[in-house]
Specification:
This protein is an alpha/beta fold. 11% of the residues lie in helices and 23% in strands. The strands form four sheets. Strands 1-8-10-16-18-20-22-24-26-30-29-28 form a twelve-stranded mixed beta sheet, with no helix packed on it. It has an eleven-stranded mixed beta sheet with strand order 9-15-12-11-17-19-21-23-25-27-31, with no helix packed on it. A six-stranded mixed beta sheet has the order 2-6-7-5-3-4. Strand 11 and strand 12 form a beta hairpin. Helix 3 packs across helix 5. The two termini are 35 Å apart.
Length: 524
């Protein structure tokens, strides 16, 4: 078994030479494409590479073959080369007339790019990223130049025949401490480097940021932000105290894996991802290749409420961070009649599980957790605090731990454990096993649910909670083996089994009638 902290995971122009397109980013300034007729744009908008708009919105259309996405012709196990332009090799680069003052980038930028390629790209793609001496044969070439101009930070060409994946960085941005590419993970400059490399691998912007230089399709506006994709302009931060993505995000990983395949042998054992104050308030994504894996939040501070969604593409964050980062769309994204003042929101920070990465288990924080399970068989321990835990489609083990917890099994034959404190336990739609634990606990009985076995019902302490309009008078309470069975008299539906509880001990005082609106499924 492996245990990780998330910081371990964090010349002249010619018409001929204009065949490769570039993504130019304030992040990217705009340069016209070689050809961009309305017919081509209509065809691009109608085309679907993957049959998923969320993927296609990130895929660049090949200039040579518009019916295919732009990508490097490399199979799984193959190699992508990258290099840093030097004074001696600069002459081998076919520059546009405005791509002047081509220079070598500094060592700190080089180290950041090496780190990004090895820790972000090589971990999710079945490719080898190899640094080579600079030449025109490199897939990705990194350099300073005046190409981005006064207003742009950088740009990168798509995979192509001549300029290939050439990345141009602005020295003006490097010289500003708030935007420097040599800054560390989470900074604006580091985010730009991840963003630009993605262009060099075939990804485009998911919105119309550059006055139509980015072709459709696009992401819906509420999805178009940096918490979903590193390629977005929305919800980025140049404030040095704000957090930018320090990894590829979930939509990027899915799109890149559509192009190149997924690396299934990375973190393919039983891995534990541990969170604490040093790595929780970040923007990053987990890719995991297999095994039975655990998210561990037990080292987080107790004085907070945490929202922990185990589903792919969803945030693991503080509840206060949900919807707390607002953004306006770029004006070029909107039709003429649109409301320029409409705000969209996303998370201030969060860790996201990549699409295709299965995480089965979770250990909660000492604080109050709101945990939502996924479609796998989950084992969830709430630990201390007053937690709300919901399972998913499979048979889950849900343990509230200490504190007053609400536990909902949902689908599947679940095991619900109240632990210490006054808990409310609701099995859901299948036949579940419920262990109330210590304290005054409520067990929900409902129409359409399964038959729940309440292993340790404490008569005179625990309560059976009736919802869906159920009344005590509608029930039939009968002996069953060494215990008691509770049915709906008119239909015969068995709501609960109480082993070890004699019939005579169960009466109206053991029941409580509640509004079903108090128990709405967290998954609904």
């Amino acid at each position: 078994m492996s245990v990780y902290t998330l910081s371990d995971l964090t010349n002249n122009n010619s018409d001929l030479l204009q065949g490769a397109s570039k993504h130019s980013c304030p992040i990217c300034i705009s340069r016209a494409q070689t050809s961009d007729s309305s017919a081509e744009r209509a065809a691009a908008q109608a085309s679907a590479f993957s049959n998923s708009n969320d993927i296609d919105a990130l895929l660049t259309r090949s200039e040579a073959n518009p019916g295919q996405p732009a990508k490097w012709n490399v199979a799984p196990g193959g190699t992508i080369t990258y290099s840093f332009v030097t004074a001696d090799s600069a002459a081998s680069y076919f520059a546009y007339t405005d791509e002047t003052n081509i220079e070598e980038v500094n060592d700190r930028i080089k180290q950041n790019i090496r780190q990004i390629l090895q820790e972000n790209y090589a971990t999710v793609l079945p490719l080898n990223f190899v640094e080579v001496p600079d030449s025109a044969q490199s897939n990705i070439r990194i350099m300073f130049s005046d190409g981005p101009g006064a207003d742009g930070s950088a740009y990168t060409y798509d995979p192509g025949q001549f300029r290939r994946g050439a990345m141009h960085l602005s020295k003006l941005y490097e010289n500003d401490p708030t935007t420097a590419f040599s800054s560390g993970p989470g900074s604006f400059g580091y985010y730009v480097l991840i963003h630009e490399i993605a262009h060099g691998m075939g990804l485009k912007h998911p919105g119309n940021y550059n006055l139509s230089s980015d072709r459709p399709p696009y992401l819906p506006f509420d999805k178009d932000n940096t918490r979903n994709t590193i390629e977005s302009y929305n919800a980025r931060a140049s404030d040095p105290n704000a957090e930018n993505p320090r990894s590829l995000m979930a939509y990027d990983i899915r799109a890149l894996q559509y192009l190149y395949g997924a690396r299934s042998d990375f973190n393919d054992g039983d891995d534990v991802y541990k969170f604490d104050s040093s790595n929780f308030n970040t923007v990053q994504t987990i890719w995991d290749g297999g095994g039975s894996d655990t998210l561990d939040f037990s080292a987080l501070p107790a004085n907070n409420v945490y929202s922990l969604d185990m589903n792919q593409g969803k945030p693991l964050t503080a509840k206060s961070a949900l919807g707390d980062l607002s953004y306006y769309l770029e004006p070029s994204q909107l039709p003429p009649s649109a409301d320029l003042d409409r705000l969209y929101t996303t998370e201030t920070f969060g860790t996201y599980i990549a699409f295709g990465a299965d995480i089965e288990n979770l250990v909660g924080s000492p604080g109050n957790d709101e945990v939502l399970g996924n479609e796998l068989a989950n084992s969830i321990l709430g630990s201390a605090g007053n937690d709300t835990i919901s399972g998913g489609r499979q048979s889950d083990s849900l343990d509230g731990g200490e504190g007053g917890d609400y536990i909902y099994g949902d689908k599947g034959m679940d095991l619900l454990i109240g632990g210490g404190g006054a808990d409310l336990l609701r099995g859901g739609r299948a036949n579940d096993t419920i262990i109330t634990g210590v304290g005054i606990d409520g067990i929900v009985l409902e129409l359409g649910g399964g038959t729940d076995t309440i292993v340790d019902f404490a008569d005179g302490v625990d309560l059976l909670v009736l919802v869906d309009g159920l009344r005590f008078e509608q029930l039939s309470i009968v002996p069953s083996g060494d215990g008691t069975e509770i049915r709906i008299g008119s239909t015969g539906q068995v709501l609960a089994l109480l082993p070890g509880i004699v019939l005579s001990s169960i009466g109206q005082s053991d029941f409580f009638i509640a509004s079903s609106t108090l128990f709405t499924s967290p998954n609904s």
